[in-house]
Amino acid sequence: MTKRIFKNTMLIILLVLALCGVFIIGVLYRYYNKEISDEMYNEINFISAGVEADGLGYLNSLDNVKIRITWVDNDGTVLFDNQADISTMDNHSDREEIKAALVSSTGKSVRYSYTLSEKQVYHAERLSDGSVIRISYVQNSIWKIMLGMIQPVLLIVILAFVVGGVLAYRLSRQIIEPLDNINLDNPAEAEVYEEMAPFVRKITHQNQQIKDTVAALKAQKEEFELITENMQEGLIIIDKNAVVLSHNTSALKLFGVSDRVEQKNVLVLNRTKEFETAIKLALEGRHNERAIAIGERIFNLYLNPVFDKEKVAGAIIVVTDITEKEKREHLRREFSANVSHELKTPLTSISGIAEIIKTGIVETKDVPEFAEKIHKEASRLINLVEDIIKVSQLDEADSTVEKERVNLYEICIEVAEQLESVAKLKDVNLSVKGRDLVVIGVKPIVREMVFNLCDNAIKYNKPNGNVIIKVEQDDNKACFVEVIDTGIGIAPDQQERVFERFYRVDKSHSKEIGGTGLGLSIVKHGAILHNANISVESNLNQGTRIRITF
Predict the structure, then answer these.
(1) pLDDT score at 434
(2) What is the 3-state secondary structure (H, E, C) of 373-423?
(3) Which range (148-152, 244-248, 368-372) has the least confidence?
(4) Mean pLDDT calculated for residue range 473-499
(5) Residue 401 has what pLDDT?
């Protein structure tokens, strides 16, 4: 802006200088012509008087005269010329100024020389005897005059240009400085000249409009980000070229990407064929939904195209992690199959024995033996149903379950006393170590958890083995119950699966001891209800250590 004002100001200065120069030269040239004309009039009157009085003698007496003097007879013969030989001169009767003087006593004419850029001015006066006195004067043209003045003119122009440049610079700075000093956040506070007041008011008004608009957009953006950032589902918005326009943090977490992916192709998130196909269908304008596997996780994709006047402008992708849902569904199917199998086994045995008794094949003395088998299978069936009910109750338990202060050491003592007779039958030494420690929990469930751990430790122990129930605090002052046995142990590759429903490390041995396969599953669900952690340390044929940390 400063440069433009400076340039325009300098252009005006130069234009004004040029116009003034032309005007001044024109006025001076006109004045110069008038002065020469008056001087020639006086000169010819003076010379005419001299010739009238003394004739040729007067003319010969004139020395160092700058003007040319010519005396011409009334027939055009040159009688005298102070700058040329009259014998070589032509008759002057045809000269314009001579003819005019012979007719009207006075004549004037001007003849130009464009080559020399000058003009010859002639003035003639008729004498009393009919002859004519003519004087002439060489006058420079305006261009020759200007050429002769080139140096002073250039000096003046340069001086004017320098002074004008300084003034133009100061003027441009004076104009721009108030603009530069305007605080755009508070333009009303600026000290400006009167002509800028409307401009400042307009900026103030526009600033307020911009602030209001930005505040509204910011509020909308923050609201949108607050909603999307708190979504567990991943949200991705792409344009028609599959370039990511926006996304929330959950989307990156679900896809396992750490870098932001705005303005990148959405396929940087996942390059599987299923994902690429889903994107392609969405950008073709077709809603689609599908599940894809990424690593060990399973995700469900919902892709909706976005239209702008019947043309696809992009798509919205919603990603949900359905891994747990799929696992639960798998567990449900597996649980149903296992329950059917576990229930079918004792029921088949009971039905078979009952059919044998019904046919009368069994002798009277063998009836108690068959009845014992029916009782044993019925007890096994009852235990299984009870464990299934417990697991189902734990599955449905939530924060509404009433909790209380539970003394872990007292519960362990009670469980040890209850299982003491079972341990003696198995020739296993059962002991409790520790001290009174209290946690907040559901007492029956905590008791069931400890009971199942100890029951398993006894069942899968060796003769003359040991089971130690320990109640203590770890380095973080967290209370824990630890059951340590010297039994058959668990292989490392099976330690994570022992808490699955109906999973048995040694199925043949489990069948002999009558386990339902739900004991440790009950422990796991009880721990989940209490936000407790379970850790397992075990080696084959060396024993197992299971800790529940509350």
Answers:
(1) 92
(2) HHHHHHHHHHHHHHHHHHHHHHHHCCCCCCCEEEEHHHHHHHHHHHHHHHH
(3) 148-152
(4) 84
(5) 64
Residue 376: exposure state from Cβ atoms within 10 A (0-12, 13-18, ≥19): middle
Q: Which amino acid is at 169?
A: Y
| pLDDT score of 548 | 92
Residue 545 pairs with which residues in a beta bridge?
Answer: 484, 537
Structure-token match 């599940």, residue found: 291
The residues, ordered by sequence, that sit 6+ positions from 425 with a Cβ below 8 Å of its Cβ are: none
Given phi > 0 = left and psi -120 to 50 = alpha, else beta, which region is 95? Answer: beta
Strand partners, 166: none
- Cβ(168)–Cβ(11) under 8 Å? no
Please give, one letter per residue, the 3-state secondary structure of 362-377: CCHHHHHHHHHHHHHH
Question: Residue 238 belongs to what H/E stretch?
Answer: strand 234-239
Report whether 434 contacts 480 (CB < 8 A). Answer: no
DSSP-derived letter for residue 88 is G
Tokens coding 143 = 């261009």
Q: What angle do CA 117, 140, 96 make, to 5 degrees?
A: 85
Q: pTM above 0.85?
A: no
For 235-277, write each residue's pLDDT tens digit.
Answer: 888 898 989 888 888 888 888 887 778 888 888 888 888 888 9
In the chain, the percentage of residues whose pLDDT exceeds 90 is: 11
Q: Which residues pair with 103 in a beta bridge?
A: none
CA dist., res. 268 & res. 178, Å (int) = 52
